[in-house]
Amino acid sequence: MPDISVRHRQGRFSLEAEFSLHNQWTVVFGPSGAGKSTLLRVIAGLVQPGSGRIRLNARTVLDTTSGVSVPAGRRSIGFVTQQPALFPHLSVRENVGFGIRHLSRERRAVRVDEMLHLLGAEALADQPAPQLSGGERQRVAMARALAPAPRLLLLDEPLAGLDDASAHDILSRLLSLDMRVLYVSHDLAEIWRMPADVVLLDAGRVTAIGPLQQVLAPYRERLLEQLKA
Hints:
The protein is of the alpha/beta class and about 230 residues long. The protein has helices at about 35-45, 90-95, 105-120, 135-145, 165-175, 190, 210-215, 215-229, and strands spanning about 5-10, 15-20, 25-30, 50-55, 60-65, 70, 75-80, 150-155, 180-185, 195-200, 205-210.
């Protein structure tokens, strides 16, 4: 079971979060500026916290007390943000295969095809990355993150800005995955029916943890009241 305990200060903002991932899907929910993206960047290894410990199953990837800090590229963590950074000089197929270049050409080709099929992006395989739409870029970014078969997938508001049909299709495909996912969102409607736990984050602090609909019920009632007004 992944266990996360981190403390980080950046200017006036401080993050202090401690929780375990009991469910396959865990949503990090909170207002803008709560520290959601910073938390994911710390877990991914892109930000070094002041102190902390992160274990992915039986493997420790961060322990500041003992001086352990596994580089981001060796943590077996996939990370997709709201603005996917594809390599503009590579095709879709080359982008998806970028992180599995250690495989033979044949195995790499099979894996790339599998991931493109999973995300419904087979028809894009030979397209140059700059020609893709926003939804297409996000599908390719997710296929690339999944290609190395990470132990944990971090998704930082990956559907923000996409049309409803694309967002629903991508999310339904992701929910079929048999893996641990930590999903950042501030959109209650988007996450409400997810079979997930939730970590409620506010001003850099975890204020509640538990089954999503149970923890976020007060927010839903407040949203319904606003819609009726």
